[in-house]
Amino acid sequence: MAAAGSAGESSGVSSSRRTQGNNTPSYDRLVTVFAPNGRLYQVDYAWNAVRLEGVTSVGVRGADSVCVVGQRRARATKDKLLDTASVSRLFPITERVGLLATGIAGDGRALAHEARNQTAEFRFKWGYEMPPDVLAQWIADRAQICTQYVSKKPSGVVAMVLGIDDEKETPQLFTCNPAGYFLGHKAASVGHKDREAVNFLEKKMKNNPSLSFPETIQMAISALQFALKEDLKATEIEVGVVRKDDPTFRLLTVAEIDEHLKAINQSKQN
């Protein structure tokens, strides 16, 4: 840091003009300041926060259902005294829409709370449930606003939104990221080992297979196991599903997850 109180320096130097030790302007102090390469470093840091949390999430859209799978917590910081059932990144937003938040746990919980309020206001105003794509757009708009004002911190979380479109009667899966945009997916992964899971999903879903409800769940779990290079226990993951025949969003029980893990192990042996 440059010494203060020089005779020729004004004490009112703007913080955005301050320099680091290498005399290079510090473009990462304010989210509203672009670096010469066109990047907003605070947004990049939000992306890094998502990966540094140490958890990975996977979502898969089947023919008549959609499933998301997430780790309950990072295994590297496992606490033997912790009740894992109390740790969740998967939130029901409405009766038919769910959200899986990957990244900083506090940001994810705050996002889920705001999303519930927003969907409640939407239902009160229009008389029907907010569709998944409309919720995804609202989350993306919320994130983008944080890149416009220095008083707002970019959210260190990527949200997966899943649900059934009531008009099209098709499953929907979206991701909403800290940069402020959302994308629809056949399958997606975010977090620490997202690249490995995406490579697995690209190979398995290359020819657009028509996945049944059990196959959709097992595909998502298999992708997560492949990315983490280990066999997971039912208590270490949480699985959220919505299906066309029963559009209510719900979390699978430990017993149901264990049945799918057994089916995956049997398919590996055959």
Brief synopsis:
The chain has 270 residues and is an alpha+beta fold.
Mean of all residue-level pLDDT scores? 87
Helix content: 25-40%
Specify the biggest β-sheet. 5 strands, antiparallel
Classify the beta-strand content into a percent band.
Answer: 15-25%
Overall geometric form: globular
Structural class call reads: alpha+beta
- How many helices? The count is 6
Record the strand order, biggest sheet. Answer: 8-1-2-9-10
Low-confidence stretches: 1-24
Question: Span from first to last CA?
Answer: 63 Å
Count of individual beta strands: 10
Q: Over all CA atoms, what is the radius of gyration?
A: 21 Å
Order of helices and strands: HEEEEHHEEEEHHEEH
Describe this structure in words.
It comes from Urochloa decumbens. Residues 27-49 form the Proteasome alpha-type subunits domain. This is Proteasome alpha-type subunits domain-containing protein. Belongs to the peptidase T1A family. Residues 1-27 are annotated as: Disordered. The chain is an alpha+beta fold. It contains six helices and ten strands. The strands form two sheets. A five-stranded antiparallel sheet has the order 8-1-2-9-10. A hairpin with a 3-residue loop joins strand 1 and strand 2.
Secondary structure topology:
Layout: H1 41-52, E1 56-61, E2 65-71, E3 90-92, E4 97-103, H2 105-126, H3 132-145, E5 157-165, E6 170-176, E7 182-184, E8 187-191, H4 194-204, H5 213-228, E9 237-243, E10 250-251, H6 254-269
Antiparallel strand pairs: 1-2, 1-8, 2-9, 3-4, 4-5, 5-6, 6-7, 9-10
Helix pairs in contact: 4-5, 5-6
Biased composition (Low complexity): 1-16
Biased composition (Polar residues): 17-26
Region (Disordered): 1-27
